[in-house]
Amino acid sequence: MKKKLSFIKSLLIICLLLGAASVQAQVELKVLTQGSTRFSDVNDAGFGITVNQYYDFATNQLTPIESDAFSMVAINNNENVAGTMFYDEPNFILQAAYRIGGIWNPIGYLPTQDPSTDEYTVYGISPNSQYITGQTNIGFDYGGFLFDTQSEVLIGTFDPEGEASASYAVNDNGIMVGWVDRPDSGGTLRVPAYRTLDGEYHFIPEGQLPVLSGDNTIGDINSSNVMVGDFDLQPFIFDMATNTFTSFENPVGAQYAAFTSISDNGVVVGFAEVDFQVRDAIIYHPSLGSQPLYLKDVLADNGVTVNTSDGLLGTAISVSPNGQYIAGWVNGPPPFAEGWMVNLDDLIVLGVQNVSHNNISFYPNPVENILYLNSKEAIDSVAVCTITGQEVSNFTLSENLNELNLANLASGVYLVKVLSNGSVENLKIVKQ
Predict the structure, then answer these.
(1) pLDDT-above-70 percentage for the chain
(2) Which residues of the chain have pLDDT under 70?
(3) Which keywords does UniProt give here (predicted)?
(4) What are the boundaries of each domain within the chain?
């Protein structure tokens, strides 16, 4: 009898485990209780970094940085990291550095630099780990820098007109994004700018300088060359492939807002200033609406309460490339602020599917000219939108097998919304 009960108990445990495995994870917020744990970045696995600790969302555990490194600022899906190491520890002189394959490597200084007076502020590492970027200076001349981890070549990227500049992120194409100063009647004014590998600087929006003083910067760029930032105290998205600049309204009650990070499937995060030196995290995606929302409201709609001291999330600084994880820190002095991380799970699924769907399949992807749709039911209409949600083309169809001529679209990532029998399916395509 005991053997029989033991077998039944074991069977019940197995069934419970199998049942638990089949249940989808839920939207979840974790706020760290330790001070000085503000997050700098997070990857697709929910593995993030603070200034000097690694963090695993699944286990909610912090691990100290390696002893031969000093600080961290960016991490990619290969868990390669950009940060700093000591150049001269007794005199507390730091240098840019990076970790690849678990090993930290120093970047050093340009031949014309003086390590005792010139500095490096590291900001980004490309997804393929080839490029490291940030800001540096030669005397009073401040600009960006780009380090190629493959060739081990370090270059200073200084504005040809001699004004200050900085680079906050870089993608696999070596496109650096940030800002460049431009003189105005009151001194200098930051302008959102990006630099390509040919050394050319490009201002956005094209032909227009900011009127209001603010960050006025590009904060991030994804693998499809879509950039985010702020311009004249409002958040924006710029699609380099389509040369489309889209400015967004600030959320209700916000005096100023900025986008700081964008995923590969178009999830954008940032912050809104809701009071003097008080921020609240924001999120945008076409599936959530046409304008950015407070992240705490999206969480509340999904049964998650923000349990910070002021009920706000402060600054959202990073979203993982797959759009699942968001990391940031609460309000307060950033060096001492507590970090937080959100797992959106499958809350935002628009754009993450690219092969087949329940009712519609499509090919080829990437597409050069003709996209073929194969539907179980008649297709009523099709709209093609940029990743920012702007419609660029539409079709009215009636056959089960349909062809979309996309030859007139510029190269880039697009969202295809297919209306069939009263339901909408969203497809993500890459136009070559």
Answers:
(1) 89
(2) 1-25, 185-187, 349-359, 387-389, 397-401
(3) Signal
(4) 28-343, 360-431
Helices (H) and strands (E) in the chain, counts: 2, 35
Q: What pLDDT does 21 receive? A: 36
| CA–CA dist 154, 214 (Å, integer) | 30
For residue 84, which of 43, 40, 127 has the smallest C-alpha distance? Answer: 40
Asked whether the domain spanning 360-431 has the same topology as the one spanning 28-343, the reply is no
Pick the CATH number of 28-343 from 2.60.40.1120, 2.170.150.70, 3.40.50.300, 2.130.10.10: 2.130.10.10
CATH numeric code, 360-431? 2.60.40.1930
Record the pTM. Answer: 0.80
User: What is the phi/psi pair of residue 241, to 5°?
Assistant: -65, -40
- Strand, helix or coil at 297? helix
Residue of 300, 342, 288, 349 lying closest to 317 (CA atoms): 342
Task: Choose among 123, 116, 74: nearest CA to 99.
Answer: 74
Of 285, 428, 417, 424, the C-alpha closest to 354 is 428
